[in-house]
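Q: Structure tokens for this one, please.
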Amino acid sequence: MDLENREKAENKILLLYFLYKVRMPISNMQLTRIMLENRYMNYFLLQQSIHEMRRDKLIITETRDDLDYYSLSEEGQKMLDMFINLLPVGIRTRLDENIDAIRSLLRHETSVVAEYTLENENEYEVKCKILEDFNPLIDIRLSVGSRDDARSICRNWKAHAKEIYPEVIAVLLGKEKDNPV
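A: Here is the predicted structure, written as tokens:
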């Protein structure tokens, strides 16, 4: 196998191995960030590998909220089982050592969502959600008058959603703040 083809094969096996280890759907943006931050491969090789793996049905693509999420297909698992030895042990070990932290970060990113859109000149719609297995536990939409307010709400929601949610539920159930739900 020539060097270029071996590198392409290693990249695909790395992606298959990562999807196998992470055990949850991952967005293109998340996958790209993780691969680039950890210097596993460059952006162009990554996107080319993803494209080819989708085409060859080695990964499953599911679209939610206009984002593509990838997970390992049966064909991808078979390919990984056959060619796992192409992946250098050092890369495998590094990924194994970091996968719990990566999975935890991905769960948080996937479960707490805050975004805003411009509705008209003087109004922004802010959407704040907490998702569990991609099903909404809470989904709040607010209209605010400035971009700064929208950004502030998004930032604070992402930082404090796990604290805000039980308080909202307690208020809606008519329970006192000191009595947890």
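A few notes: The longest helix spans residues 147-172. Residues 131 and 175 are 23 Å apart (CA to CA).
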